[in-house]
Amino acid sequence: MQPGKRVRIKSAPDRIGVLTDDVQTIGGKSRWMVQFTDQKQRFPEKNLELVDELESIESLLKAGNFGSARNLRGAITHARLTGKLADVIYSMESTNTEFYAYQFKPVLNFLSSPSNGILIADEVGLGKTIEAGLIWTELRARENAKRLLILCPAVLRHKWKSELNHRFGIRAEICDAANVLERLKDTSRANESFALVASIQGLRPSKNWEDYTVDTNSAKLARFIEEEASTKELFDCVIVDEAHYMRNSESQTHKLGQLIRPATKNIVLLSATPIQLKSDDLFHLLNIIDNENFEYKNAFDNVLNANQPIMELTGWLRSGDFSLDDFKLGVANCLSHPLLEENRQLKELFNSPPSQGELDNVDYRIRLANRIERINLLGGVVNRTRKRDVKEHRVVRDPQAPQITMNGIERNFYEAVTERVRQYCERYDQFEGFLLTIPQRQMCSSMPAALRAWQNKIGLIDDEILSDTLGIDSDAEKYEQKIRKETTAGPLISELSSLAQEIGNYELIKQNDSKYNTLKNTLQEYWRSNPGYKVVLFSFYRETLKYLLERLKEDGVNAQILMGGMGDTKDQIVQDFKEKEEIQILLTSEVLSEGVDLQFSSTLINYDLPWNPMRVEQRIGRIDRIGQKADRILILNLFYEDTIDDRIYNRLFKRLDIFTHALGDLEAVLGQKIRNLTYDLLRHDLSKEQEQQRIEQTVSAIANEKQNQEELETEAAGLAAHGDYVLNKVSAAKEMRRFIDGENLWIYVRDFLKRKYRGSNLVEKDGLSIDIDLSSDAKNDLKHFLEASRDAKSTNLAFNAIGKPITCKFYNNVDLSRREYEVINQYHPLVQFAAKNTDPERFHQVVATKLQHPNKSELDSGKYLFLIKRWSTTGAKTEEKLIYRAINLATGQALSEVLSEKLIMAAISHGSDWLEVKSEIKGDDLIAHYHNLEESLDNEFEDYQKQMRLENEDRIDLAISTVNGQIDRQIATKQSSINTLTEKGNHRMVKLFEAQIKNLESTRENRTLDFNLRRKINNEPRDVIMGVIYVQ
Which helix (H) or strand (E) covers residue 175, if one does? Predict the structure, then answer.
């Protein structure tokens, strides 16, 4: 031995260092000082052995130099932290959410989407917000995504901010158009992360926004996005909540979607819209996601037709036995469509089909089906989950409607106001007639509250009622200003005020309020049987809520009120209602009907009855959600007998099971039919019998729609890919632990600190709670790391005083609301720091571990040789995956890919060092089996390389086609503007647009060149680790 040589400790073969020139001789025996990465230590020469600089797997196996079991865990964790592994779901077990397998369907569908976009069309209450957050979490882990924009209705902004913080560990800021524009222009913060939450209404471009004389913030933002998006992406991901507001292609809201799409790499649309292949609504939403493949409706239909044989072929492959002739015919059917006739992957399958033996192998058929599904032109673009398909969701709805009969005082007031409103409606066209339902409904909500509001000349409408009336689509854009004027200072409010002064006596109506008395008696009876239960009460009208708060307080009921405009206090109000026992009932407007989780309550009261069934569903959806612990929820509907509300409830909603079943497929068609019914009921002087007849007509029409919708949903099932197959992938990922958990993070960081910074003090407490006091060197290096990676999340670990440890929780879930400890997850800078400074070669190449036979396992007892590789592909898209293979040493039988992975995961979770391995197994035998495994994997890798090359070529072709389509459309728009400006003689603006067209052509050339450079694909098979496992 001589200084400078690499040596290992015989008793710990994975501990390798370098001999220094410091050697002692005691009693004729040498003791060498060995330099390791973290420390120096002296060893007797007999305890050391030289490391061959060209040491091979074979030499290690022959010599029996096996590393400890911790190397296996460390190597896998390191590969997962530093890679973009297709077989790992990084968002699993890494957020503050409960696990529901179906919520990962859109994550996997999104990752396979060729459009980098998805429409999540799940029914209300299934957690679309969580699904979108999981996708963003996945992008953060895989692509280091930093720039997120959330677009949602104004009423949901604070909810999104809270959800991102609590569930996903993201600090978001609420912005208007000016704020977003300022943030995008701030080049000094170009490399920093941001999460912006803005309202669709606030960012929606105004009319004539292309005109540079229009200087609204939304117009300036729209022009900036259009100009910048031609050369670079402004966002890593945009999430649009309630995206159905963008389905009207003529609206400025849809235009906002078209502007945003080229500016973001990824886009996620959330909507409860059902999937109808023949629906223009679906086409217009998919047009926003991918305006190349879905540019025209006929092109969309063409894609659907081309997609059908692909779905059939993959379905056949997964369903059972499949002959070679059937396979060839299926591929030929795919190639027969013009959109697929040049597809390289299909041509290769047709020219070089698998053998019948391969098709008889179930594992091969599944892999082949997965491969073909990646060709799917609609693959992953749409995700649809319905409540009836979710096993975790089996709540029974119990609707009740106690009879409320008007007394004489109420009847006189109701009829007088109704007659005056009818007379007023006759002087207006249909649209205004519909608006005048508002005073009618306000009176049905609460007569005392309505009377008091009219006497005080309080306007009839606010943002919530306007949103319920028209939404935020093109109609609202057209009529919003007129509506506000009419219902706040127009002749109607004056006429109602005059009428209220004439016939109204507030105290008299209050004392004779039949509806409130019914509410009070019902609540008293309910709380006698269910003490401590929380109740949620909805009303459209602020004045009704204020009135109820006063009355309940008078009767000794502790109530909390929540209405629009309360801003940040809304989340605190909901939290107080949940946690404070003394608050018995929450009185809320429609501000709470979307995006808020109240499943801790199982009783909901509709104090007034929405005529729009979507509002009914959204209200009920606050408590009928995933996570509701009660088997039965109570829905109490309050309305007066012998009113239009009564007839709509009993003859329409009740017969259509609106309150007992989720609307699901009907939600898109019900709203308009109810509006049409409303027009007729309030515009004409109908008798009671005529009103009932009109309602019956609507019932029949909706029943037909329901049947048609069910047929359309069935027809479209293939569009959303194979739901069961995707769910099986999710379940397998959960079972195989294809995610990063807190225990593995702790062991990975612990080993890193012990190896590199031995002066660090780590004290384990309960569970994975650790007191950490880093050494001075570790603090200093971590500070430099934080400075270099400006976007790394802050941590106190680099700045605490020596001797004052920081309590940390190794918990891969994220929650910034925690203050009692610092959460260390996969995004934490300490983990990133450890991963960056860990050389994968430091993990011993060959390990030996043993474990007790797992109960109910498919594994046989015995000794196994295993091999793990990391296959990486770099081209148009970077993709990596871990390959697990194992062989039974006694039988020589290779395990399936799935069983190999199960064996290795069991060894990671339950294995210990196999110290006797050298005496119990022969190195030469291991080498022969090792060579067999390597040869088998070499053959598999050849096929993988070919598949990736063809897929890469097809992906490049699609990308170039998409860029050309986007730029062609932008040029056409600008050329149209040039023609108009030329006619007006505005030559200065003409030159500006001509320069922009020139820049677009330059962008086309540069991006095409860049894409073509990526045609050269690089496939690399890397060794991760190998070894032997003894299942006892």
Answer: strand 173-175
Q: Which amino acid is located at 723 in the chain?
A: G
pTM of the model: 0.72
Q: What is the maximum alpha-carbon separation in the chain? A: 119
Q: What is the pLDDT of residues 223-276, one digit of tens each?
A: 999 989 878 899 999 999 989 888 888 889 999 999 999 999 999 999 876 555
Q: 666: closest CA among 270, 648, 674?
A: 674
DSSP label of 1025 = E
The neighbour count for residue 717, using CB atoms within 10 Å, is 13
Contact status, residue 356 vs residue 326, Cβ threshold 8 Å:
no
**Amino acid found at 891:** T
Distances from the Cα of 508 to the Cαs of 450, 456, 515, 615, 643, in angstroms?
A: 14, 17, 14, 32, 21
Half-sphere exposure (Cβ direction) of 632: Cα atoms closer than 13 Å: 5
> What ranges make up the beta strands (E) of 487-568?
535-538, 559-562
Q: What per-residue confidence (pLDDT) applies to 586?
A: 93
Q: Which residue in 22, 17, 21, 20 sits closest to 6, CA to CA?
A: 17
Indicate the pairing of strand 846-851 with strand 912-913: antiparallel
Distance of alpha carbon 868 from alpha carbon 76, whole angstroms: 9
Angle, CA of 186, 187 and 188, to the nearest 5° = 90
Residue type, 45: E
Q: How far is Cα 551 from Cα 543, in angstroms, rounded to an integer?
A: 12
Tell me how far apart the alpha carbons of residues 426 and 350 are, in angstroms, rounded to a whole number.
Answer: 69
| Burial class of residue 232 (count of CB atoms within 10 Å of its CB; 0-12, 13-18, 19+) | exposed
CA–chain centroid gap for 580, Å, is: 31
Alpha-carbon distances, residue 903 vs 340, 857, 860, 907 (angstroms) = 41, 9, 10, 6
- Residues 1020, 881: Cα–Cα separation, whole Å: 11
- SS (HEC) of 189-230: HCCCCEEEEEEHHHHCCCCCCCCCCCCCHHHHHHHHHHHHHC
Closest CA to 962 of 263, 292, 221: 292
